[in-house]
Please model this.
Amino acid sequence: MKSYDVAIIGSGPGGYVAAIRCAQLGMKTAIIEKYSTLGGTCLNVGCIPSKALLSSSHHYEEATKHFEEHGIEIPGEIKVNLEKMIGRKQAVVDQTTGGIDFLMKKNNIDVFEGLGSFKDATHIKIEGKDAQEIEAKKIIIATGSKPSTLPFITLDKERVITSTEALKLKEIPKHLIIIGGGVIGLELGQVYRRLGAEVTVIEYMDRILPTMDAGLSKELNKVFKKAKCKMMLSHKVQSVERNGDEVIVKAENKKGDVVEFKGDYCLVSVGRKPYTAGLNAEAAGVKLNDRGQVEVNEHLQTSASNIYAIGDVIKGAMLAHKAEEEGVFVAETMAGQKPHIDYNLIPGVVYTWPEVAAVGKTEEELKADNVDYKVGQFPFRALGRARASGDLDGFVKILADKKTDEVLGVHMIGARCADLIAEAVTAMEFRASAEDISRMSHAHPTFAEAVKEAALAATEDRALHV
Ligand code: FAD
Ligand code: NAD
Model:
């Protein structure tokens, strides 16, 4: 029987990053993945393919709607070849997952293909291509998550679908009904709206992106409405039925009226749930909580002391970079180091256009905590760079402590915000004040100047360009 210092179950961004860090720290490492490709949800059916389709559909929108204003004329009709677009997405996925194979080899990590299940706290049975039993002194559970649904919905995966199917449709929907105005619904809704589908978003709460700062929800809702998406907020979905090629969704509005929506596809994007099926966690003494998450302490250690858990399968934000941080954290903890993660400073990004990005506390959270704060906000339309490219929507909002000026939260929506948020994370990691940011030179003309201007507005209400 092969024996390891550490075995990792699941090869998503949590698992494969943990494996690399363990190997770097000198541990003999194995990783077990039930699918034939490494990379988990993120690389195969999550972050990477969705961003590939967002990029392709963005190009199409630019070509059909904005090239002309830039003086670029394309004779003839511009058409979408969906098969080719999905093919390119798959090629990007294949290259990226292939990259993980390379990284495993480079770091001398043994890869086992098959379903891993606990025999006890130090033995894992692998069923599948590489069937065998292995032994490991320490084990990391990184089994991720799967889409969740509503109890009355039958996901037929043809017309009533999850994000996994939405990433490989064979036709552009005529009318895509989306249940859930969260990250997946909005990113994939934008993809198909750009490609010509009618899109209806049905959201239970009174705003889209309900966990983000309300200012961002409002601004993105405007953008979606401008693109002629129907945004049905405060609607509780009651039933989803399929009738041939038609999908009928009924939802109750605030007044108690039942509203009916008819489309040809329905994307169910109401969140994801931790995945532990087939793991046989109880055989190792690993406890789950009532939400099905693997229970962990502050060291990400489970109820079995040699077994740790990371990523979507435990509490916290379901984000690839959160899973990665936890993978490194656990590897370093096992090596006797004292790593640290500040969960308040894990940024959240929605890759629509304009992009939405945030870190730290929202206004709603600061109000609930009775924190005395001030706000500095700056609109992108006042920036030279935004005018030059024509990306005028959005703003940067900085929330700072009223007394100390320490930055407590940064919320932005606009072009390239997914990248701009890194400046806010850096500043907050160093506990910068708004004035610190406002006194740093930002290259001109850049979108990043909006961060400096928002900091100036927060410091002394002295933004320069509004
Ligand atoms: P996963 O990536 O889910 O990997 C778990 C792996 O474990 C899987 O490969 C699974 O097959 C394997 N596994 C499970 N059980 C077993 C077993 N018993 N034996 C062997 N293998 C097993 N996050 C972002 O930060 N940015 C984004 O842009 C983003 N976009 C997304 C878009 C979509 C459409 C979706 C669905 C998700 C997106 N996410 C994004 C979320 C991100 O994908 C997850 O947070 C991330 O993948 C979690 O990583 P993980 O390692 O915990 O688990
Ligand atoms: P989500 O939690 O982001 O959004 C789900 C939405 O569905 C919420 O707005 C919620 O109020 C709504 N909802 C719940 N029940 C409903 C009902 N009965 N009727 C109508 N609306 C209902 O979940 P998601 O969009 O499915 O994404 C799942 C996870 O994947 C998220 O945790 C997210 O972090 C991750 N993800 C991240 C990214 C990114 O980082 N860019 C992209 C995609 C997915």
